């Protein structure tokens, strides 16, 4: 499989790299990192990164404009995207060949070729292992992208998905001379609106007897704090240290739906996410409900899985 992917990359004259919508650091880090490595390895190829940028992560790079007529002759690589519905870009599956490279559970094999490994911390880490096997050089501009992806998906190396292999890759990337001070300043700087909203979140946490914490942020609340849904979504871990907390949810109301960010310290929550039009990792998932009347249903299911879990 890995050799087949390498051969397709080396044979292609045009490569278009996609990832999931509403990107996080791993989605963008893996996308920009792979693009940079391939541009360095194959300067004569046309290699583009497609999708919409997240405002808070604009420091990570600039995405390319890709026309629909470029896809039929292109190799499309889709990164960090568990299911087809979450791909950012309606043309992504119109390529000559499509490759999925991901670290989420492979429950939707939408591409022609799949390379999925849920045992790694992030898609960025997975790509570094792969590129090392192929003997491709990872220059510093790519290294800082991959490092950002790993930092983002491991919570600065705190989450249980962090392994000795993760630290080995991180050390390799650090050895290229990346500026981690610059990276952390940009990754964790906070707008005043978001900081004020965080205060509201901390004051409005609900904690159930089963150990499920949750906060509901309505459109009205977001407008009152002049905060975007994107800014609010970054607050999902702001109360992760609460004593007695087993799992938690942040509900974000938009014009069309309610986005649900789910996290856990032990109970497996991605099965709950799947029941509500979502999915993800056992300890970090996302879901979507139609309106706020469905909040109680999500909390009820989280109470069931959290109530059955013992630390």
TrEMBL record:
Domain of life per record: Bacteria
Domain DHHA1, chain residue ranges per copy: 224-306
Matching SUPFAM superfamilies: DHH phosphoesterases
The DDH domain, residue ranges: 15-132
InterPro entries: DDH_dom, DHH_sf, DHHA1_dom, Oligoribo/pAp-PDE_c-di-AMP_PDE
Record PANTHER family: BIFUNCTIONAL OLIGORIBONUCLEASE AND PAP PHOSPHATASE NRNA
Record's protein name: Oligoribonuclease
């Amino acid at each position: 499989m890995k050799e087949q992917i390498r051969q397709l990359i080396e044979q292609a004259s045009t490569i278009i790299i996609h990832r999931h919508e509403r990107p996080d650091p791993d989605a963008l880090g893996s996308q920009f990192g792979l693009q940079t490595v391939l541009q360095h390895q194959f300067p004569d190829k046309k290699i583009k990164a497609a999708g919409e940028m997240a405002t808070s992560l604009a420091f990570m790079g600039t995405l390319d404009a890709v026309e629909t007529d470029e896809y039929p002759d292109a190799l499309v690589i889709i990164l960090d995207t568990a299911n087809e519905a979450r791909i950012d870009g309606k043309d992504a599956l119109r390529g000559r060949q499509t490759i999925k490279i991901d670290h989420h559970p492979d429950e939707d094999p939408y591409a022609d070729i799949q390379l999925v490994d849920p045992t790694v911390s992030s898609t960025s880490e997975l790509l570094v292992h792969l590129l090392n096997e192929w003997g491709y050089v990872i220059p510093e501009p790519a290294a800082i992208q991959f490092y950002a992806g790993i930092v983002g998906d491991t919570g600065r190396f705190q989450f249980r998905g962090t392994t000795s292999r993760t630290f080995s890759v991180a050390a390799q990337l650090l050895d290229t001379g990346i500026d981690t001070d610059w990276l952390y300043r940009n990754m964790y700087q906070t707008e005043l609106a978001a900081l004020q909203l965080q205060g509201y979140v901390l004051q409005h946490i609900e904690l159930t007897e089963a150990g499920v914490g949750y906060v509901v942020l309505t459109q009205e609340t977001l407008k009152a704090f002049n905060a975007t849904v994107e800014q609010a979504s970054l607050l999902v871990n702001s109360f992760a240290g609460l004593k007695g907390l087993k799992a938690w949810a942040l509900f974000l109301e938009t014009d069309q739906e309610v986005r649900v960010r789910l996290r856990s310290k032990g109970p497996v929550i991605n099965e709950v996410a799947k029941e509500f039009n979502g999915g993800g990792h056992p300890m970090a998932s996302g879901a979507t409900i139609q309106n706020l009347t469905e909040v109680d249903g999500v909390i009820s299911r989280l109470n069931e899985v959290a109530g059955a879990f013992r630390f």
